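Notes continue from the previous slide.

Worked example: a multi-chain complex. Inputs as given:
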Amino acid sequence: MKRTLYDYRRSSDPTWSSRTFAIVLLILFSSTLSPTIANTFSEAPTSPLQQTVTGTVTDETNTPLPGVNVLIKGSTVGTATDADGRYSIAVPDANSVLVFSFIGYVTQEVPVGGQSQINVQLLTDVQTLSEVVVVGYGTQKRSDLTGSVGQVSGEEVLQRPVTNVLQGLQGRVAGVNVFLNSGSPTASPRVVIRGMGTINSSSGPLYVVDGVVMEDIAFLNPYDIESMEVLKDASSTAIYGARGANGVILITTKRGAKSEGLVVGYDGFVSLGTLRKKMDVMNAEEWLSVVERGFANSPKYNPNENPVFTKTDPNLFDANGNPLYDTDWQEEATRTAVSHNHQISVQSMTSKSSLGTFLNYSRSEGIMLNSWLERVNGKIAYDVKPTDWLSMGMNMLINVTKENAIEEGGGGQVPRRTMIEMPPIFPVKFPDGTWSNSQMLSDPYLLEAMANPVHMLKTEDRLRDRTQIFGNVYFTFHLAPGLDLKTQFGFDKHDRLFRRYAPDDLINISANQGGVAEIENQNVLYWQEETFLSYNKEFDEHRINAVLGLSWQERTYSQNYQYAEGFTDNFMKYHNIEAAARPGAPSSDHDRWALNSYFLRGGYTFRDKYIITLTGRVDGSSRFGANNKYGFFPSAGIGWMISNEPFLSDIPALNALKLRASYGVTGNTEIPTYQSLATISSGTTLLNGVRMPSSNVTRLPNPDLSWEKTKQFDIGFELAMFNERVSLEFDYYRKLTTDLLLDRPVPNSTGFSGVRDNIGEVSNRGIEVLLNTLNVSRSNFTWQSTLNFNYNKNRIEKLGENDEDIFYGPFWVTGSQTVFRVGEPISSFWGYERYGVWGTGETPPAGVLPGQAKRSEEPTIIGKGIPSWTGSFINTLRYNDFDLTLDLQFVFDVDIMQQYFHSVEDRSGIANGLRTILQGWTPENQNTMIQEIRHQGYGGQDSQVDSHWITDGSYLRVNQISLGYNFNSGLLERTGLGSMRIYASVQNAFVFHSDDFKGYDPEATSWGEQWTQNIFFFQYPKPRTYTLGVSLRF
Amino acid sequence: MKLRYIVILLFPAVLISSCDDFLKEEPLDEFSVDQYFSDPDHAYSAVNGLYRSGATTMYEGGVYSGTPMMFVQYMTGLFDNEYRGQEVHIQRAQQLTLDGLNTAGYIDNIWSNLYQGVSRANNAITNIPNVPDLPGDERDRLLGEARFFRALSYFQLVRMFGPVPLVTEPVTSLDDIYKERSSVEDVYNLIVEDLRFGLEQAGLSTAHMSDNESRITQGAVAVLLADVYLTMAGFPLQQTERYADAATIARNLINGQYGAYALEQHGATPAESAYNKIRRSDVSPEYIYYREYEAGISNSPYPRWTYPVALVKETQYDITNGAYQPEPELLNVYDPDDDLRMQNKQFFHWSLDTPNGEVNFQITPYIWHDDAALFAGPATSSKDVAIYTYPDALLIAAEAIAQSEGVTPEAINYLAQVRGRGYWELGVAGVESTLNGLSVQDFVEEVWTERIRELIFEFRTWFDIQRTRKYPVTDENNPGEVTYVDVVGHTNPLGSTYAERHLLFPISENERQRNPALGENNPGY
């Protein structure tokens, strides 16, 4: 029996050790910056025969652009602009043409024609068809792509002040759903690309950072990101074979400077988070009226009970029975959260090497008391080309995170629940300094046992410390022009320490146990070695891009856990766990998987018009059964640049039109290890007063176990018009996932509930649209819009042999709240229909009285948790040196299961609840959905998952409003700064949703499984955040 | 340039040379199946695991939901749970509205827990004979224990669900997993065979279970076998010759053949009554087979059920719940004047002295009351919970003898021993005099009544109704008097009328989907 801790927290101040770490990193910095290293490689001399051209490159607002590539067309000679946007390049003759290119801007070609100074203004590129994009194991020209690849630049990720990369990704790429399910700084969003194609395996995409697979992407520093590429269709993901089925997100991090010299930058922001809205709960007077009415109605439901309502406790009521306190627990349990983030970057470049060093410190506070995340990130990237046949480099990233997490799962008496349900008649502390709890009342209200939320937030620790060391070393051998052999060793190491202490006075949490301490250690070591040949060559009208390689990957995991209860005081906590009277059985765990793969991709473009890409990967995985160790994942894609055909070339408005289509197979191996084997689980059991060894067979073996296969067809087009001021990308896809890794239900009479097997099919069909427009483009004013949306239809096509319904939970109140059923989408809600409330003239079934809910006889499907439509609409306006961003996000055709209706509406009297209870059924008010008030403790309750709990989950969120100011270069010259930008923004400013939704935010889940989206009990509220930030370059 | 080629050629050569073991899967935190049962310790650990899985999980449950054994009792309509509004399975049982769909989740749990017990026992029974170096006497004892647990699981299954699939070998592959239902008779035959082995060939100890390292004893096997025979003699099998078998086993048990057991006797005061002695002891000498608890390893949930929700703040517990509240119609089986069991703070309690005076509450079980856990803290209880007790054996003997040999003095004495302890002023002899001259039917009904009274915390009432097809009707004007009517067609105190189908639970629709070979659900569902 393994026990795993999910979240932890704390109260002591961790900054000291973070500071130490920061100092160490700073020392590291200064040493890497020493000129002896930076100048190791001397610069190449300029030939006197050549002519030198200089100039400045700016953007539309005349802001100098550093890092712009300046290339002599038809050669490999090039340079890049410096921090002030200036460049200098030697050109062979006056016929040369200079090509200025920069990610996010339209590439310009300028004939030299004898000029010695050429100043260029680059226009923002809406459609970057001519740019190079990162694909699996290499790069490709965007125009040569046959697959569907979404691109997000580092700047776009940081347009919102984020501390989590995935928050920056939200709404940026059509077809990529980022669910921000919590307002806690310690929670991480969930990402689903093109619908959920799996039930039991992970539905998250594969994250590849600089060519190395990374787990726990949540802790990557967003400021380290240069660009993100989202691979969505089979043509682009098949190169990742058995791990590509959920899509792949390639992240390229920043490295050295792009031009010779040194750039030092600072980025920082401070933000304030506030509670955006409150749930509408009753005040003391209203709540007492509900208790009183509940007492009065009790005999109707339970003839044995005839309680007498009193208000006599002198600690809570005055002599007239008026409550002494009227506590707003939502106010008390939350705060204005102050967060800040600082990034220093030092990037340099010489002719043969470049070095980038980055340091980030951030502290994010949550709006619930005592929840926080503190992180220090250091990164060093070094690239060098010591000889003409070898390039090499390394990248190293260290990440230290400490956090105090709030419990966000399940249905216990934890603060996110008690801040709603703690009755308002109690104070946070009584005048004598003792914390209140719901049992400190002498009147017979039979309150549900709960510690008050402030008490719990301030005294329970749920600490999680993480250290990650991630990086790679690579060597590229330039074998022949266009032919490279690259070998790269990468690693991802995680050390995690989770600790919890719950003191001995938190009732219904840890009081019965006399205090609870838990300690868990986890260690992960992942490594990969990949070696591949790549060939990129242009011959006249032919362009070839090919990759051939092999890969080894291995991940080992170990864990140990200790639980203890029964502490004589709350001082030593987990620091001295042996002081506990009753230690639990210790536990430990080990796990390993390995992959061995071979891959191949060939791309061919003819006359810049006809494009074909063929990809294949062979993966062998230890996780699969002995009979199925290796799988083959092929794909093919074709593209046709119609706009390059003569018959379209005379339409001046048309800049580019490309049709593309792809088909392929990818896999999903993300199942727990050892699932194909029957193993014996060993543990202990109570026998004769002690723990005795016990063991049992864990599961049925399945040597045929194989990966999930996703067949995906994609067809789309990319269109650019009116000088690329309008660009449109459209995709239609069909995905069919077969051989789902499911617990195939077997008769329970076998002693097992299921066997992990390849059964079931799920389909996803949908469209994706990305429309970029440059609505206004004047020298001092531009307005640019990005609209993207995705429609996805998810359907379960097949389940087990008999297509049995599968109930995987969450199991809560009346059994599983979801059903997997053929013909229905994943995440279908399961419950009864509520038609209303039984009236006095009606005859309800036995055991039911007028005033109780009128429900359907049998449960049925009453909603779904995954939206059909998701999208965003982002507008950026620039006026002179000002810029304004308005970022809207929407989802449509989705439902929410408000599980809290169980305890804050269907049940009353023993805890606080929604004010809607006051409108409940009475003989005079029968036309209502809300049941009659009855005191749960005396009169019982009638609470089952039903359609009254379900509401439309569609919403429109004003995600961000941001105003920035760029100091113009004249002003900056006097200060010695290269560039400076300040900005102010509001995040999560407004959310428009159904009136029937009574919670904080319409996007959440209280349950860990991926099909439990939008099923929640209580939420960690998502704050409205005000941010002030600055960005400097020296 | 040379270096360049050497390096370039070397890399692929090193990397392509693969090692075969790289993709081999070998768990380090679990045994693989072929490593199992290679050592005598494995045999022990496989059997140890049976003590808290399978049939005994019927005695385990959450504070709100109660245990599956309580669920069985809710079918009588004579017991209530304060959390029934939230725990729908309780309402379904009380109102007799349960079917294979609306109670599927709860019934699935019972079914799968019991079959998990069967499966683990099968694994032990099949493999233990082949464990090397395991001495023969140890092997037989372990087999006896494993077969006891398999029998107990099947006994629960057959009483709850009627004909069920009979799985007697470990399932190790997907071949042949769709088993049809076997007849009730075949299930009972396996139960008897297993228990006969335990009693006659396993060499189990005759010590009290608490003196036998809390392992299964001959006494435990015997009392279960006696109960099985008694049940076989009733509905649905009606093998009336089994009364004699039940009588033999129970009589031998009482006579000490399987170990020495005796009734707890009263002390001088009500607080020292036999019932309070039992309540205060961790394990009573009267327990023949029980489920163990130990604070810090496995805490007993039962003290939480000794106070209604309302009284929680008087205790150390954060939640209490009247999960097993007897209805007045049940309490009327006791004579409140003469029967000690119906006095406050014996079997039940209804008042508590607090600093603010005496608080009264709805009648709630007292037998599970753990003073230390409830009042001194920490709220962790080690008290073991009875599954089979000596009074059970006496009452089985009384009924079985009456049915097979007539109302003999021996039968009368066995009943009188149990009743006489309750009617403490009347005493055993006094009770005997009231029982003399009864017809077999009248005497047997007296035994049934006594079973309701005495075995209320062993959850026998509904199983007795199933077996006898008679429902106990009490009279509030004449408490202690019970008449028996046909259960089918009878309306219980909650207003629910029994039909034939209610005598079995439905098979869950989930399980029917999983195993098409199960065929039709139980008749009426």
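Summary box: The radius of gyration of chain B is 26 Å. Chain B has a mean pLDDT of 93.
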